[in-house]
């Protein structure tokens, strides 16, 4: 009888230990599942955004970051469940969204798998697409995607990573945004108005590829009658000051250019360039400038002292 009681008690202790083991396992699994992201009912989940591979210096998550944050470091943010967009410059919204789930994990459409990573985790990695920007044909230092922090932000030729977006524009001179736009698609290829392609007499090349080349439109400038020390075009960043007063410029379409013939003094001799390649003298400068064609090149000539 004693042996039977001992065995029964042993069996009950084994069942109890098994039940405790199952409970501990369930608790561990619950804790492990909750470790994906720490939640705060009042503020949201702790997630990370890794945009360190991208060419942009900064980014914004509208509704989350109150100002631009540095893309060169992985950012830790507290984000409520919901759908979010990604912004790389003023007016530049990427063509993708991502969501933070009620469990605090990252999710996004499978159409974005080629340039995003981190689904099901608490870290969104924005890899972007590897593309090439070639502005070596242009006068000056090249093109600018965003407001420069340093001179290194100017691009003459660069292989970099960018996110798909329907609207990109560039500057050839600081503060002078070119009056055309282009798109990086979800396939990592560039597109733009067919009329802008060099094959049709335009100023861009690379449509349907991962390389975008800026060729611009050529202009011969004759400022010998200006009475100055030379000539350059403002605001083209990095364009040399020609001491002969004759210069050759390759320009992207923009609404306003001016000639500088005395150091530090911008003259009233202004002109514009349309996307179809049409140069036009500003209304206030018609008595100062004239346009003609010289050996197939459009030529802008200063006709009186500036």
Description:
Helices cover 11% and strands 40% of the residues. Mean pLDDT is 88; it is low at 1-37. The strands form eight sheets. Strands 1, 2, 5, 9 and 10 form a five-stranded mixed sheet that branches. A hairpin with a 2-residue loop joins strand 6 and strand 7. It has one helix at 2-34, and strands spanning 39-40, 44-50, 58-59, 69-70, 75-79, 82-89, 92-100, 106-107, 116-117, 123-126, 129-134, 157-162, 165-168, 171-173, 176-177, 182-184, 190-191, 204-205, 211-214, 217-222, 232-234, 246-251, 254-262, 265-273, 279-281, 289-294, 297-302. It is mainly beta and 306 residues long. The longest helix has 33 residues, at 2-34. The chain is elongated. The chain starts with a helix and ends with a strand. It has three domains: 1-29; 39-127, Immunoglobulin-like; 130-306, no CATH class.
Condensed summary:
Helix content is 11%, strand content 40%. It is mainly β. It is built from one helix and 27 strands.
Give the oligomer, counting copies of the same chain as homo and different chains as hetero: single chain
Mean of residue pLDDT?
A: 88
Question: What about the largest sheet?
Answer: 5 strands, mixed
Distance between the termini: 122 Å
- How do the SSEs run, as a string of H and E? HEEEEEEEEEEEEEEEEEEEEEEEEEEE
What layout of secondary structure does this protein have?
Elements: H1 2-34, E1 39-40, E2 44-50, E3 58-59, E4 69-70, E5 75-79, E6 82-89, E7 92-100, E8 106-107, E9 116-117, E10 123-126, E11 129-134, E12 157-162, E13 165-168, E14 171-173, E15 176-177, E16 182-184, E17 190-191, E18 204-205, E19 211-214, E20 217-222, E21 232-234, E22 246-251, E23 254-262, E24 265-273, E25 279-281, E26 289-294, E27 297-302
Parallel strand pairs: 2-10, 11-19, 20-27
Antiparallel strand pairs: 1-2, 2-5, 3-4, 6-7, 7-8, 9-10, 11-12, 13-16, 14-15, 16-17, 18-19, 20-22, 21-23, 23-24, 24-25, 26-27
């Amino acid at each position: 009888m004693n042996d039977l009681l001992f065995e029964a008690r042993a069996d009950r202790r084994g069942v109890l230990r098994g039940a405790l083991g199952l409970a501990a396992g369930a608790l561990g699994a619950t804790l492990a599942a909750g470790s994906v992201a720490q939640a705060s009912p009042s503020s949201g989940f702790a997630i990370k955004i890794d945009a360190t591979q991208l060419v942009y210096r900064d980014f914004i998550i509208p509704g989350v970051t109150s100002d631009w944050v540095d893309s060169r470091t992985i950012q830790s943010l507290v984000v409520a469940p919901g759908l979010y967009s990604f912004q790389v410059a003023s007016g530049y919204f990427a063509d993708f969204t991502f969501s933070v789930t009620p469990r605090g994990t990252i999710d996004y459409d499978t159409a974005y798998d080629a340039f995003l990573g981190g689904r099901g985790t608490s870290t969104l990695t924005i890899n972007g697409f590897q593309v090439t920007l070639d502005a070596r044909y242009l006068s000056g230092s090249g093109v600018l995607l965003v407001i420069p922090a340093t001179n290194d932000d100017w691009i003459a030729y660069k292989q970099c990573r960018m996110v798909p977006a329907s609207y990109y524009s560039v500057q050839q001179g600081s503060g002078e945004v070119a009056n055309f736009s282009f798109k990086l698609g979800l396939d990592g290829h560039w597109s733009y108005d067919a009329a802008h392609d060099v094959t049709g007499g335009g100023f861009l090349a690379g449509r349907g590829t991962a390389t975008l080349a800026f060729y611009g439109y050529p202009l011969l400038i004759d400022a010998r009658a200006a009475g100055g020390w030379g000539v350059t075009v403002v605001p083209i960043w990095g364009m040399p000051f020609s001491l002969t007063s004759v210069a050759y410029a390759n320009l992207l379409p923009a609404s306003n250019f001016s000639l500088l013939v005395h150091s530090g003094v911008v003259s009233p001799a202004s002109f514009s360039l349309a996307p179809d390649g049409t140069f036009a003298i500003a209304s206030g400068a018609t008595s100062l400038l004239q346009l003609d064609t010289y050996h197939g090149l459009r030529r802008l000539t200063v006709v009186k002292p500036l």
